Amino acid sequence: MPTDFDFDVDPRTLRHPDNFKWTRYPADVLPLWIADMDYPIAPGIERALKDRVTRSIGYHHYQGDPRLTEQLRRKVEADGITGLPEQGWVSYIAGVVPGLYAAVVSLTDPGDDVITMTPIYPPFLSAITDHGRNLRAAKLACTPTGWEIDWDALEAAVTPKTKLLLFCHPHNPTGRVWTEAELRRLAEFVERHNLFIASDELHADLTLDGTHIPFVQLASEALKQRCVTLIGPCKAYNTAGLGIGAMVSHSPQLLLRIRRGIAGISAWATALSVTMWQAALEDDGQWLKAVIDYLRENRNLVETFVNERLPGVVHVAPQATYLAWFDYRSHRRAADIQQYLLEEGKVALNDGAMFGAGFQGFVRLNFATGRTILTEALERLARVH
Ligand SMILES: Cc1ncc(COP(=O)(O)O)c(C=O)c1O
């Protein structure tokens, strides 16, 4: 359906020095790797940023802009996170990845064990290991109907030293939006083992099918005190270069503890990022709706193409995100599939091996690009299949 927005972008406008995604690889490669969208930002955000630089980019309310806090409160409540205390329920940070690191260093000690479910967005792994915590990886199960939590693997991952679970919902790279039943069972698991949980819900606004339910909404009152939800605008609004996120919790004490663990080390969110998030939250929603509709069609195109033209590649269409996770393990070049597709196919994808032990042979494709580019990239994959 035609919209006011043209997302069928021209590669010539994308390949410029400020664009890491489009300049990391040689000019004959189509870059469908890092999680940026190739679309121009929402017009309302562009206007707000231009306006802001003409006024002031000096020191600002770096400990929490009151207008943003008010807007965000309305958003998180509308999204289903209710019952938050009046004060101390949010703490801003320079991105969601810093929030993952902050949770690890503040809620665990060196030598403790931290669980996450793999495959997983690589900073979940480094957040655990970079500061001397032990990674306890619980592999997801790939069933004929899609990726699921492997409850036995999760139980087996728990040790007496396990303090924290880093959870991803919606999940990068599989695109799973966990169901109410799964979230309830996970809440029971986390509570039974007396863990903390940091739930990264950065992709929630990019849910393509069904409804995203925040994890904390299904936690008991006691568990809510041990839960931090990490949110941000950068995936839905394509503004990752500005760096801002928020840690949300029913427990001001928990947020203070996390904040103290990174005091003076992690930067505050910048003035421009605050303006950007404010503009996103007061946008009329037309741009985001058009993006989601476009992504859904791209998602469907990828699914059809893989089924018809890439025999042997296993792929379950994502319910959220703009990321497709391909299992190429039966391919003759499974041992170096990312390199093979880059060198022979001239398509840059993310290497599955980075997403946890046991995921060599997988690749992640970012379909948030123009349909012409996406079609050409898929054709290239088929040509070297
Ligand atoms: C699940 C997830 N968390 C965090 C991030 C990065 O967040 P930020 O740039 O706000 O640190 C990404 C980026 O793709 C992501 O997919």
Automatic annotation (TrEMBL):
- Every copy of the Aminotransferase class I/classII large domain together lies at 58-380
The protein's matches in SUPFAM superfamilies, at most eight in alphabetical order, are given as:
PLP-dependent transferases (SSF53383)
Coiled-coil annotation reads none
Question: What cofactors are annotated for this protein?
Answer: pyridoxal 5'-phosphate
UniProt keyword NAD, yes or no: no
So what EC number does this one have?
A: 4.4.1.13
InterPro entries per the UniProt record, alphabetical:
Aminotransferase_I/II_large, C-S_lyase_PatB-like, Class-II_PLP-Dep_Aminotrans, PyrdxlP-dep_Trfase, PyrdxlP-dep_Trfase_major, PyrdxlP-dep_Trfase_small
Sorted alphabetically, which keywords does the UniProt record give?
A: Lyase, Pyridoxal phosphate
MF terms (GO), sorted A to Z: cysteine-S-conjugate beta-lyase activity; pyridoxal phosphate binding
Q: Which family does it belong to?
A: Belongs to the class-II pyridoxal-phosphate-dependent aminotransferase family. MalY/PatB cystathionine beta-lyase subfamily.
Q: Indicate what this protein is called per its UniProt record.
A: cysteine-S-conjugate beta-lyase
Gene from which this protein is expressed: patB
